[in-house]
Amino acid sequence: MENQIGVIHVSMEINADFKGFTCTFELLLGNLDRSVFSETDPSIIEKCLKEMGGEEDLMLFEVLDHGNLLNIIGSPKNAKQYVLGNPLTAIEMTRHDIRAGLYAPLRVFVYETDDQLTRIDYDKPSSLFGQFNNPNVTTVAQSLDKKLVNLIQEAESMAKYLNE
User: Fold this and answer.
1) Is residue 3 a part of any domain in this protein?
2) Does residue 28 lie in a domain region?
3) pLDDT tops 70 at residue 77
4) Does pLDDT of 43 surpass 90?
5) What is the DSSP secondary-structure string of 39-65?
6) Is 1 part of any domain?
7) What is the reported pLDDT for 3?
């Protein structure tokens, strides 16, 4: 079975340099420590995960330096993919529809254009998770829409302030 879905793709130019923005963005996010999952007591895991959350209760799962890959052909660029989210937020969705796990955690791509502008691309969570037609999942996804915007705006403001 195949279904066609509509995804809202967000692409924005921000008023901050790539390095300043990405450093600030990474500092604002909490960091997922996967060793917490070796704990056997679910209440301890939940407590630890709550403590790991950063700005907007989001945490960094991984950073993929796509721009550095271009070193292979001799033309590196500034481009990073961020894998971010919160396992507790994912649980809120996947407990209602396990398929929500396809899109959790989220992906955000930050890159520098040829004319030195910093751009951010991501797929709006509510459009990804909305396909499941579950109001419980959709409500959480809509909150993620807001959290991403807030996080990006905060990182942009801080990066601009630090550059002044």
Assistant:
1) no
2) yes
3) yes
4) yes
5) -S-HHHHHHHHHHH--GGG-EEEEEE-
6) no
7) 87
Residues 94-145 have pLDDT tens digits of: 999 999 999 999 999 999 998 889 999 999 999 999 999 999 999 999 999 9
Q: What is the CATH number of the domain that holds 122?
A: 3.30.310.70
Q: What per-residue confidence (pLDDT) applies to 161?
A: 77
Structure tokens at 11: 């692409």
Closest to 109 (Cα-Cα) out of 132, 74, 80: 80
60 has which bridge partners? 31, 84
- Which two three-digit tokens encode residue 77? 């660029």
Give the Cα separation of 144 and 20 in Å (integer).
24
Q: Which domain covers residue 117, as residue numbers? A: 9-158
What pTM was computed for the model? 0.94
Query: How many domains are contained in the chain?
Result: 1
- Asked whether residue 154 is domain-assigned, the answer is yes
Residue 154 CA to residue 120 CA, distance in Å, equals 14
Q: Angle formed by the axes of helices 135-163 and 18-28, to 10°? A: 130
User: Which has the minimum average pLDDT: 5-19, 62-76, 141-155?
Assistant: 62-76
Which residues of the chain form beta strands (DSSP E)?
Answer: 9-14, 30-31, 59-64, 79-85, 106-112, 118-123
